[in-house]
């Protein structure tokens, strides 16, 4: 049968291969017809920017990714003593100091683990290196679901025996022991820094809940301080203890994934409903005291773990209470529905009301919208969406940003409820390859360069510009400026750092640019 023109076009895209230079290794670029390219990796080859060493004082380094195919393309030049006379000037204001970076990362879901382990040993190692090794993109945070979520192949918790209030039958799942834990251990072995593990639970066991099910509208039975609430707090402690047996300790835990979802009628995923008042009282009466009395008293507690449109109200209810507040370290936010509420009204106001608590991004993914669903290989618009959100978050006091699944298959799964989405890495197990999406590099422009302890500083533009930007001083005193150009025009500009001089630069249309330079 003759191929239709559309199918023929797809086949042409599938076989298009271009080599792009990206530092120490080259990108094997493939075009699937979604506006830009992916970089294909296998067991023996994967592009990498390598370990980044900045040019000496008086020079600057640059890294460019673009819709036309650049992927962390390295460059640089000399810092000038005088202004270049460009119309647009971005001035670094080092005495305007804001939050310090905690880290960037993604989630080791059951689905991510399944996909990584579907590859050969060599390709698995390549994939983990892309995220966690010194030549990778600097991930230091890994979110770990406690038991199943929609990105699992089945529904389960660690304590499914009805009435087991003492959690005598609590046990980790095969998904933990055979998949997630070994991969986390391998990631830690590759990483030059201790990984910050972050635990989030989707649902309590069904027998603890008002609806008797893991999914749908339901919350814990009884009241905070009651036996179900105390057992649920102990469930968290047991999880920490079991993972610690494998030498995996958690930097933080959240009070539960998207508590607002558990109040939605006919909600089809795992969920556990909490109002802010219930969450406040559960932390004050149950979770906080249990954690404090456990062998993991220094594990951070992050509230909310839901969309930022719930702020600042949620934070006001929980953090204004001294009994709950003393156990809490931060507020976790998801990026869904960000367009519905300005960052200043949600993140900014929350920070100004409660500056002692940090803001941390715990989930984001492309392809969740019904209008733009699933995997889109080479979709540059998604890279821009990521970069824009990260810049906006960083400019509103967020200290870290965590992507969702570390890897998915070509359908955007597996997902037991078929809630297929996109991921920075897409695995093709049949060919034993994986594809690094444009938004993989989008995250890299931040995660590779904004090391833990980097502090955001002020940036002033001398005129209106379409550019979006954020600047940080790293612990060694070097400066990093990330610039996003979502417009269709090339924009010339200069950077003035009073400590060193002027940098002349150009950012192509639809591109992302990281500039970095030493100040001493």
TrEMBL record:
Keywords: Glycosidase, Hydrolase, Lipid metabolism, Signal, Sphingolipid metabolism. Pfam families: Glyco_hydro_30 (PF02055), Glyco_hydro_30C (PF17189). GO terms for cellular component: lysosomal membrane. It is a peripheral membrane protein. The keyword NAD does not apply. Coiled coil: none annotated. Residues 101-450 form the Glycosyl hydrolase family 30 TIM-barrel domain. It comes from the Eukaryota. It catalyses: a beta-D-galactosyl-(1<->1')-N-acylsphing-4-enine + cholesterol = cholesteryl 3-beta-D-galactoside + an N-acylsphing-4-enine; beta-D-glucosyl-(1<->1)-N-octadecanoylsphing-4-enine + cholesterol = cholesteryl 3-beta-D-glucoside + N-octadecanoylsphing-4-enine; 1-(beta-D-galactosyl)-N-dodecanoylsphing-4-enine + cholesterol = cholesteryl 3-beta-D-galactoside + N-dodecanoylsphing-4-enine; a beta-D-glucosyl-(1<->1')-N-acylsphing-4-enine + cholesterol = cholesteryl 3-beta-D-glucoside + an N-acylsphing-4-enine. SUPFAM superfamilies: (Trans)glycosidases (SSF51445), Glycosyl hydrolase domain (SSF51011). Its main location: membrane. One of its GO terms (biological process) is cholesterol metabolic process. InterPro entries: GH, GH30_C, Glyco_hydro_30, Glyco_hydro_30_TIM-barrel. Its EC number is 3.2.1.45. Pathway: Lipid metabolism; Sphingolipid metabolism; Steroid metabolism; cholesterol metabolism. One of its GO terms (molecular function) is beta-glucosidase activity. Residues 1-23 form the signal peptide. This is Glucosylceramidase. It comes from Gymnodraco acuticeps. The lineage of its organism: Eukaryota, Metazoa, Chordata, Craniata, Vertebrata. The gene is gba.
């Amino acid at each position: 049968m003759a191929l239709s023109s559309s199918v023929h076009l797809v086949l042409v895209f599938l076989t298009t291969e271009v080599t792009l230079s990206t530092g120490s290794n080259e990108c094997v670029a493939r075009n699937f017809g979604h506006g830009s390219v992916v970089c294909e990796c296998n067991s023996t080859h994967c592009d990498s920017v390598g370990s980044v060493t900045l040019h000496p004082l008086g020079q600057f380094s640059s890294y460019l990714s673009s819709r036309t195919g650049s992927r962390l393309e390295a460059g640089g030049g000399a810092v000038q003593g005088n202004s270049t006379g460009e119309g647009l000037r971005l001035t670094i204001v080092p005495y305007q100091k804001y939050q310090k970076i905690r880290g960037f990362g993604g989630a080791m879901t059951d689905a991510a683990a399944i996909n990584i382990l579907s590859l050969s040993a060599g390709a698995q190692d390549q994939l983990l290196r892309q995220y966690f090794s010194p030549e990778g993109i600097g991930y230091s945070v890994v979110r770990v679901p406690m038991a199943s979520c929609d990105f699992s192949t089945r529904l389960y918790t660690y304590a499914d025996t009805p009435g087991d209030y003492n959690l005598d039958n609590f046990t980790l799942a095969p998904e933990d022991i055979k998949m997630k834990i070994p991969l986390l251990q391998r990631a830690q072995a590759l990483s030059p820094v201790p990984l910050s593990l972050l635990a989030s639970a989707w649902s309590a066991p069904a027998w603890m809940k008002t609806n008797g099910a893991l999914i749908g509208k339901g919350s814990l039975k009884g009241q905070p301080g009651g036996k179900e609430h105390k057992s649920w707090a102990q469930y968290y402690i047991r999880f920490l203890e079991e993972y610690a047996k494998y030498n995996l300790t958690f930097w933080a835990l959240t009070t539960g994934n998207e508590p607002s979802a558990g109040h939605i009628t006919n909600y089809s995923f795992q969920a556990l409903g909490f109002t802010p008042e219930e969450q406040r009282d559960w932390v004050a009466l149950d979770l906080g005291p249990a954690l404090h009395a456990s062998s993991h008293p220094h594990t951070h507690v992050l509230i909310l773990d839901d969309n930022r449109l719930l702020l600042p109200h949620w934070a006001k209810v929980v953090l204004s209470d001294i009994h709950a507040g003393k156990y809490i370290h931060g507020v976790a936010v998801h990026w869904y529905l960000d367009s519905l509420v300005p960052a200043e009204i949600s993140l900014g106001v929350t920070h100004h009301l409660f500056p002692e608590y940090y803001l941390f991004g715990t989930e984001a993914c492309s392809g969740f919208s019904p209008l733009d669903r699933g995997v889109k290989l080479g979709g540059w618009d998604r890279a821009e969406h990521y970069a824009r959100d990260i810049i906006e978050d960083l400019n509103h006091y967020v200290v870290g940003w965590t992507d969702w699944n570390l890897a998915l298959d070509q359908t955007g799964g597996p997902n037991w409820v078929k809630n297929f989405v996109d991921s920075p890495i897409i695995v093709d197990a049949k060919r034993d390859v994986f594809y690094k999406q444009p938004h993989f590099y989008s995250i890299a422009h931040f995660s590779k360069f904004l090391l833990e302890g980097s502090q955001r500083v002020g940036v002033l533009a001398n005129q209106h510009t379409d550019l979006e930007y954020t600047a940080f001083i790293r612990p060694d005193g070097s400066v990093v400026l990330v610039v996003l150009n979502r417009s269709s025009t090339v924009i010339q500009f200069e950077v003035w750092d009073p400590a060193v001089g002027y940098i002349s630069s150009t950012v192509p249309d639809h591109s992302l640019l990281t500039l970095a330079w030493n100040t001493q």
